Amino acid sequence: MTRKHRTSSVIVIDRPLISSQPFMKLSGIAPQVLFLFLARRQVQKLGRKGKEKNVIVNNGEIVFPYSEALNKFGITHPRFARALSRLIEFGFIDINHSGGGMVKDITTYYISDRWKSYGTQEFKKMERPKDTRGLGFTPKNWEEKTGKKRKANSKIGNNNVTRTSNNSVTVLNETPYALSNKSVTEKLSPIFLINKGEELIRALSATQ
């Protein structure tokens, strides 16, 4: 369960961090965002007496929503996203859980010390996951998040059309009684008309 953030008037920053090569590489709003992350730490001294260590007790549970970055600090979504990418790239923060932007599904972060090995073979490269938040929907999770089923696609493809197109019409045109496939207004076969004319004459003769 995520602990509530307790604000503090003091931010403790290690001197090696602010003089490190990766910190010097940070650009844009990234340094300020890093300090705002550090301000969210809840640090306690843990361990045996005389050997206590400062431990971030809420590490992995630190939250910093996009909405807060915008509404409280005026950091727009694109600027905040770039800052997060840089902080992860240089090893200052890591993502514990990547939220989908939905209520009660927010991203949680670690304060990382990967920056200490930046530029060495021991450095573990990490990247920020692709941002698919929007409303938290993706093609894979849409049905699960909405509780609805997608409608089956009712496609009438070319294959189906072809079955009733030129091939079928061509077969019909081989008989003397079919209409041409060029136009329904074209004349019928002359032989058909002659035969029908003869039948009509015989019928009239029989009635007289």
Question: How many β-strand stretches?
Answer: 5
Distance between the termini: 104 Å
Strand order of the largest sheet: 3-5-4
**What shape does the CA trace take?**
rod-shaped
Low-confidence stretches: 154-187
Task: Give the number of domains.
Answer: 2
Structural class: alpha+beta
Model description:
Strand 1 and strand 2 (53-56) form a beta hairpin. The protein starts with 14 loop residues before the first helix and ends with a helix. It has 208 residues and is an alpha+beta fold. It has helices at residues 15-18, 21-25, 30-38, 66-73, 77-89, 142-146, 158-163, 166-173, 190-207; strands at residues 43-46, 53-56, 62-63, 93-97, 108-111. The chain has 2 domains: 15-135, no CATH class; 173-208. The longest helix is centred in the C-terminal third of the chain and has 18 residues, at 190-207. Strands 3-5-4 form a 3-stranded antiparallel sheet. It has a two-stranded antiparallel sheet with strand order 1-2. Helix content is 37%, strand content 9%.
Describe the SSE topology.
Blueprint: H1 15-18, H2 21-25, H3 30-38, E1 43-46, E2 53-56, E3 62-63, H4 66-73, H5 77-89, E4 93-97, E5 108-111, H6 142-146, H7 158-163, H8 166-173, H9 190-207
Antiparallel strand pairs: 1-2, 3-5, 4-5
Helix pairs in contact: 3-5
